[in-house]
Amino acid sequence: MTKPLDPAIQADVAARVADLRARIASAAERAGRDAAEITLVGAAKRQPIERVAAAVVAGVHQLGHNYVQEARAMRAELDARLAELAWEGAAPSVAWRMIGHLQSNKARDAVECFDFVDAVDSAKLARALDRRAATAGRPLALGVQVNLSGEAQKSGLDEADVPALLEACAELEHVDVVGLMTMPAAADDPEAARPVFARLRELRDRLRDAPGGHALADLSMGMSGDFEIAIEEGATLVRLGTALFGERSPR
After folding, report:
1. Domain membership of residue 64 as a residue range
2. Does residue 146 lie in a domain region?
3. CATH code at 73?
4. DSSP sequence for the chain
5. In principle, which of 82, 119, 228, 233 could form an S-S bond with 197, CB 3.0–4.6 Å?
6. Cα 222 to Cα 91: distance, rounded to the nearest angstrom
7. What is the pLDDT along the chain (251 residues), one digit of tens a residue?
8. What angle do CA 139, 140, 143 make, to 5 degrees?
9. Among residues 232, 217, 237, which one has the least CA distance to residue 33?
10. What is the pTM of this model?
């Protein structure tokens, strides 16, 4: 039995997606880049499932979440909601990205729930993910989170510690580090984030020739308030929450 999306929500989210795609294309053009290089990741934490489903219908096929348990519940709810919709052809495949801090003891759950883990910040976590990926019988793509703002409350490695983590990951058989991720300090002016985004791009470029850095391609940086600056500085993944879905639901 089909159950269509709420028309008002569908129209609102579709308009948001169209606007964001246009802004992504404009930012890419300013930087002399191809907009096709840039993936819009819907940051779905605490978002209503109807809005998440509407984003998928509008063409957003990668979703990010910060917490394993909540992501697992949302993934099941989204699958059920998408199954209720009438599709012309097959329903789209949705990839899930872990974009929040992950503890090593949650590695098994993360491998079961996510297709990518973008916020790895220790060799211990990478090894745990490698073991769980081996058990699951599939490779897992990782991103390394780098704390370039120097804020103690933020997760991520110091820039100087990234090469050692890449070298440790090079010895693992079931995970590949394919990118870097960062979050700048909060600021009213999006331009304040530009130096941080530029540093992450420069770090990736330097590390491509380092042990374990051969697969580095992705730069996960830029959120609702600063994603255009991130694209101008080389972002390949932008993590958009409120700009895409609207304000988050209260806890």
Report:
1. 7-243
2. yes
3. 3.20.20.10
4. ---PPPHHHHHHHHHHHHHHHHHHHHHHHHTT--GGG-EEEEE-TT--HHHHHHHHHTT--EEEES-HHHHHHHHHHHHHHHHTS--SSSPPP-EEEE-S---GGGHHHHHHH-SEEEEE--HHHHHHHHHHHHHHTS-EEEEEEB--S--TTS-SB-GGGHHHHHHHHTT-SSEEEEEEE--PPP-SSGGGGHHHHHHHHHHHHHHTTSTT-TT--EEE---TTTHHHHHHTT-SEEEESHHHH-SPPP-
5. 233
6. 28
7. 689 999 999 999 999 999 999 999 999 999 999 999 999 999 999 999 999 999 999 999 999 999 999 999 999 999 999 999 988 778 889 999 999 999 999 999 999 999 999 999 999 999 999 999 999 999 999 999 999 998 888 899 999 999 999 999 999 999 999 999 999 999 999 999 999 999 999 999 999 999 999 999 999 999 999 999 999 999 999 999 999 999 886 66
8. 150
9. 232
10. 0.96
Does any domain span residue 233?
Answer: yes
Residue 143 burial by CB count (10 A; 0-12/13-18/19+): exposed, middle or buried?
buried
- 75 in a domain, yes or no? yes
Domain count, the chain: 1
Identity of the amino acid at 32:
G
